[in-house]
Amino acid sequence: MLRPRLRIPRASSPFALPASRSSTAGQLLPLAYRSSYHTVPVLENIPEKESEDGQKYRSIDGFLSPMAFTTAWDYYQTHVLSNLNRLCAETNNDSLLLKDVVLATARDPAQAATFNYASAAHNNHFFFKCLSPTETKAEDMPAQLKDALVKSFGSLDALKELMINTATSMFGPGFVWLVRSDRPKDPHQFRVLTTYLSGSPYPAAHWRKQSLNTATDVGESSERGIQAGKQYLENSARGAGWNASAYKKDDFAPGGVLLEPVLCLNTWEHAWLFEYGFGGSPKSVLDKVKGGQAGVAENQKSGKEVYAERWWDFVNWNVVDRLAFPGGTKI
Question: Which residues form the Manganese/iron superoxide dismutase C-terminal domain (predicted)?
Fold first, then answer.
């Protein structure tokens, strides 16, 4: 009988992975999948630490403890990628990047499980790659990004409040995204959107074909149906008055717009419940934040709200800036 590779942390080191399994990317995956394409990447933005007994681990002091970090990243990412590799074995999806797997399977109900695991892994990695190992100040973000966000939301405080309140209000797990939305004559606008469960923020992943248009009875297999569908897709995706010569054509869902995610907040329970609990943060966490005195106001908030507030203080705004303006794009 095969024994599961995922181990319970040792009592002597309740948070650390065994040193031999945390040093390189891919070694966290079960042995049968180590030759597969999709492996757990190394988080270069969060350096490894070493415990007194020589165990390697990662954590973000004041935000995610070693056990919380290991659970939300190492264990969870291993789980979803192991299942993804099982489903992708000996298929074309095995050689694709995670985002490409998401886009390739989103519209095929027969590949719903593959989509779910690929999207979950992609979203979780996106969340972690935008984190800083130390506290940051939003006011110190690159000037171009700051100006664009203020233009879109009125102020940085307004954006912070919107993302935290949106995350707190979500009744169910998912992600809160900051996205760059490019529309004709109005480029580099930023918006906040949510995706639930393993939902994807990419507009090309939001449309599944149906074989019959119930309003017109024009099937997709007929030439008339194909042309009507293409025209409706283009018009609805770009809105009235769009200039075809100045707008990139993408295969969007009806009503979709061109956008690119630049930041996300993970609201799945495995990301915050261990550290923050249901109703307010554990005193051990608040002590670090308050210098030894856990605040009454924080304990009156939900654990997810306190988690979201702490997350804002650990966003790597330089990473967000590079994602928002790739190649040094100017507004």
Answer: 143-198
- Contact residues for 163 (Cβ-Cβ < 8 A; gap 6+): 176, 178, 192, 265, 308, 312
pLDDT range class, residue 187, cuts 50, 70, 90: low
Task: Please name which of 136, 127, 135 lies closest in space to residue 163, comparing C-alpha atoms.
Answer: 127
pTM score? 0.72
Assess contact for 176 and 252: CB atoms under 8 A: no
Give the chain as a 3 state SS string. Answer: CCCCCCCCCCCCCCCCCCHHHCCCCCCCCCHHHCCCCCCCCCCCCCCCEECCCCCEECCECCCECHHHHHHHHHHHHHHHHHHHHHHHCCCHHHHCCHHHHHHHHCCCHHHHHHHHHHHHHHHHHHHHHCECCCCCCHHHCCHHHHHHHHHHHCCHHHHHHHHHHHHHHCCCCEEEEEEEEEECCEEEEEEEEEEECCCCCCHHHCCCCCCECCCCCCECCCHHHHHHHHHHHHHHHHCCCCCHHHCCCCCCCCCCCCEEEEEEEECCHHHHHHHHCCCCCCHHHHHHHHCCCCCHHHHCCCHHHHHHHHHHCCECHHHHHHHHCHHHCCC
* pLDDT tens for each residue of 293-320: 444 445 578 889 999 999 999 999 999 9
